[in-house]
Amino acid sequence: MVTHTARVFSGVQPTGNLHLGNYLGAIKNFVALQETHQCLYCVVDLHAITVFQDPAELRNNTREVAAAFIAAGVDPSQHIIFNQAQVPEHAELAWVLNCVARMGWLNRMTQFKEKAGKDREKASVGLYVYPNLMAADILLYRATHVPVGDDQKQHLELARDIAQKFNNDFDRPDFFPQPEPLIQGPATRVMSLRDGAKKMSKSDPSDLSRITMLDQPDDIARKIRKAKTDPDALPDSVAALEDRPEAANLIGIYAALGAKPLNVVVEQFAGAQFSKLKEELADLAIATIGPIGAEMRKLMDDPASVDVALGDGAARARAIAADVMDEVREAVGFLQAP
Ligand code: TYM
């Protein structure tokens, strides 16, 4: 059994409205992993176009996500940040994996069903095979660990199945590692501020449903003040949060932003009114997210510097990807120039 070198890969779509869920579920964890792992963080523009994107906005949103990585503390000189389209091997491996994955597997993907909605006939073909591209992203670098929010769990399970089937089909037991999802912290699923039963998302029509990474302090405070609550005082145990979705969400966000265990935060606010939690949460969110947003704005004012960082990262990513792709072509039986 070959042990693969530990390597972290994750991706974020450049579809605008980067929000607190993306930060707490993913980007904050990207930063911590740099201490212990070699990391690649990708702005997944190929994924974004599974739903039509205005080209100018796509360029801007790609820089926005890259700026968020850097502003949050990812170091592009020690690790790799890049946009997917600059490494064509992603699309090439995705094609091979399209031929490995089974229709039945993709038919089970709940995110496709949610995103395609009722009129599935009108969804792009890309949206359907999107999880295969995601598997390609990870396997192209033989990544062993993938930090993501809870909503990506099913896609990660599929990536593991695809890796295993490739290894079996081509009789190379250790060709691809089984990537481990890292779904960590007290906010792996941040919910909408308007509805504790709905995920915070980039596409929710209500701006009040999410705190974005570019919100100004006033907006952050206003959105938290207007967040949905229930009529009771805050509970005194973690178990009692179970049927209190709004309280669970705000307390989970507070714990994640303050890097405190959930039970400590529950104790801190036990018996208090929502207004007290909201006031302290607004201060904490402004103190933690505010400076990241300010730094993102600075970086985006100098788009050329962001483009240089992405180009440099892409060249380094491609050096790894090209070697793995050569091995894939050989394994599959594609003739290559001698
Ligand atoms: P995307 O762009 O939708 O989201 C980026 C990251 O943010 C997490 N996330 C959340 N976490 C907690 N609460 C929320 N409300 C919330 N909303 C989003 C997501 O779980 C994700 O980690 N398919 C991926 C992008 C991708 C990828 C990859 C990820 C493409 N290739 C390879 C890992 C590895 C996506 O659409 O994420």
Please, what is the average pLDDT?
97
Number of helices: 13
Task: List bound small molecules.
Answer: tryptophanyl-5'AMP
Count every beta strand, where a strand is a DSSP E run of 2 or more residues.
5
Task: Give start-end ranges of low-pLDDT stretches.
Answer: none
Give the biggest beta sheet: 3 strands, parallel
Instruction: Give the CATH architecture of the largest domain.
Output: 3-Layer(aba) Sandwich
Q: H/E series, N to C? A: EHEHHEHHHHEHEHHHHH
The value of Rg in angstroms is 21 Å
Structural account:
- There is one protein chain.
- This protein is mainly α and 338 residues long.
- The protein has 2 domains: 213 residues, Rossmann fold (3-Layer(aba) Sandwich), CATH 3.40.50; 92 residues, Orthogonal Bundle (Tyrosyl-Transfer RNA Synthetase), CATH 1.10.240.
- It contains 13 helices and 5 strands.
- Strands 1-2-3 form a 3-stranded parallel sheet. A two-stranded parallel ribbon has the order 4-5.
- α8 links the parallel β4 and β5.
- α7 packs across α8.
- The longest helix has 30 residues.
- It is globular, with a radius of gyration of 21 Å.
- The model has no long low-confidence stretch (mean pLDDT 97).
- The structure holds tryptophanyl-5'AMP.
- The site of tryptophanyl-5'AMP has 26 residues, from β1, α1 and α7.
